[in-house]
Design brief:
Elements (H helix, E strand, L loop, with lengths): L13 H22 L21 H8 L6 E5 L7 H4 L8 E6 L2 H13 L5 E5 L12 E7 L8 H11 E12 L7 H10 L2 E7 L4 E8 L25
Length: 238
Amino acid sequence: MHRITTAPVAPIPARTRWAVAAGAGAALAAAWWLGDTAPYPYAQRGLLDVPLPFLTADRMDAVLRPRPGERILEIGPGTGLQSLHVAPQLGPEGRLDVLDIQQEMLDHVMCRAERDGLATIRPTRSDARELPYADGTFDAVYAVTALGEIPEPDRVLREAARVLAPGGRLVIGEFFDRHWIPFGRLHRLADAAGLHLTERRGPSPAYLARFRPCRAHAPGPRSERLADSDRDTNDGKA
């Protein structure tokens, strides 16, 4: 009987193992980055329900300040992570409009709203660059990790400013991904759209920023109706 012998296998150096792991990680990151298409594909909707650092519900409330009876517009609601949190705060007399280019996302939001007994959410399928609403319709407009996925974000901001009531507010939330809009760029686009910064929270890779129409662009008595407690005292602070 012949005995089969094998040569001992030399251990893989730690440096080589780390290099392989780093290469695999880079490949996965590249696949995620290059595969991150806009609009966000419905097939990957599960990731949209993962809370993001610095874009927490508490921070969203502090920056958006939803109030009972208000009418608010959400651009790009995804699967409704923000919608289902904001809508109840508007009360039975308030209303949350959700606008998306993908009917599947809107259907998903409405199914969740029905499950939770929320009857104050209204879906609209449309392009955010041409909002199908009259001037001065909304007390607030917000878009969380959605603005960068829309071509010509400058047009979206101008449209948001148009549909805001005088004294209304726009909240943009951005998180670092392929379509991320750095805060500096957003600030410049907002200035050009006639919006001025009133608050920012979080670093540039993950921030929430609130803007209001500049008085020159939003005349009218409602621009003067803000109570002292509602005036912004930390303009531009992270």
